[in-house]
Amino acid sequence: MKNPWILPAAALLVGGAGGFFAGKSGSSAQSDSNQDSLALSASRGSNRSGSSSSDTVRNSKSSKSLADIRKTPGQNGRIQALLDYYQNLSPDQLEAEAAKLENLPMNERIMASILLFGRWAETDPKAAMAYSDKMGMGGMFVKPTILQSWASVDPENAAKYYAENPREFQMMGMGMGGRGGSGASVIASEWAKNDPQAAMAWAQSLQGRDKTQATTSVVRELASTDPEKAVSMATGLDGEAQKEAYASIASQWGAKDFNAAEAWIKTLPADQQQAALAEAIGSLAGSDPQAASQKIASITDEDSKRRAISDTVDAWSRQDPQAAATWLLSQGSEDVSRNAMRDLMRNWSSQDDSAAVAFISKQPAGETRDEAVGTYIWSNRSENPQSVMTLAESITDERARQRAVATAAEQWMRSDPEAAKEYIAQSTAISDEAKQRLQEGNRGGFGGNRFGGGGPGGNPGGNRRRGN
């Protein structure tokens, strides 16, 4: 049984619905640790063949209800059982099952929603859409799953519904830092899997941003299997649509065959080569960050170079953060170093907290060190909250320091509130007004965490490639 929509739908639904469901369930700590594994398990479950273990097959076949399935041993076994269970239900029965989702713990509800509404969309998508309208805020988070599953089996009618009901999908693409994909891009991507020419014809009939995103999605989908055909298709585009299509091709091709991608990039108009090269290098970094670092010297455009360096540091620091840090500091530009420091410290602190702190201690005062400290504090796993607070107080920028101190204090108060309050009261680096707020457990007025999630303004993920 093939369900090609499951993994992308999981990303859309989990990314968009996490905060909403967590607020309703009250079990956010458990769900946060489970969401990534849920999406991964869904992809594994959807690709299982008849060679699944006899225990899983027996459990899935014998399941008579959602309650039975919840008792199935193993997360993958439960997901496969849910797939089998929903696969055999009529649209009316799926509606009855949808009403039961509210009673599930949040992490189970997310995955069950993906599987149920994905299946419902294959059998009666309009009924599934109508039901989502009765779900309040939760309905906005299942609509992308419904639309994607619908488009995977009937893209023409999914596209027609999208055109007639645009307001239903206006929230799509707003989760996960805007990387979830608009309704038009989701339909185009699914359509292009089977008929890229028809998908492109539809994308070209759209207007504005929908047109650009849809055409880019078609080209990106084709580029993942046949970059040369994707190039031929993108040649007929113009303006921003062509620029983004070329970036997508460069990203996909760079991951498959960087040398071929680089040769093609040299044939592009001069004003498009730098951005495309940055995309290709960013993809190369995923498999060979050291090789990617050597290619960056050929980029002269500052924005493109900054993006390529961030992607390279992100990939490299997952394998060898010390080597990534040494290379990053050799680039010489504080602006570039500060920008990539978020990726470096987020990855490094999760792998080796003490080594990350040792690196910070050797850095001179300034914006780059401030960025390193702020990101470290947001993602640290240190068992010494006082040392974390001391680091926060060492930030030179006043507003950034106050935000970092608030984050460090909040972390400390969760483990030892009395010690945290005593330290805060004696600190000379925290204003009296801030002390009062912290002592009362109120972070209001700090303006949010500049370092929360990686980018200025709390943009999760920092600077990611457009081609992804």
TrEMBL record:
Top-rank taxon: Bacteria
Chain intervals with Gly residues compositional bias: 442-461
Compositional bias ranges of the Low complexity kind: 37-54
Record region (Disordered): 24-71, 428-468
Feature: compositional bias, Polar residues: 55-65
Protein name: Uncharacterized protein
Species per Swiss-Prot/TrEMBL record: Luteolibacter ambystomatis
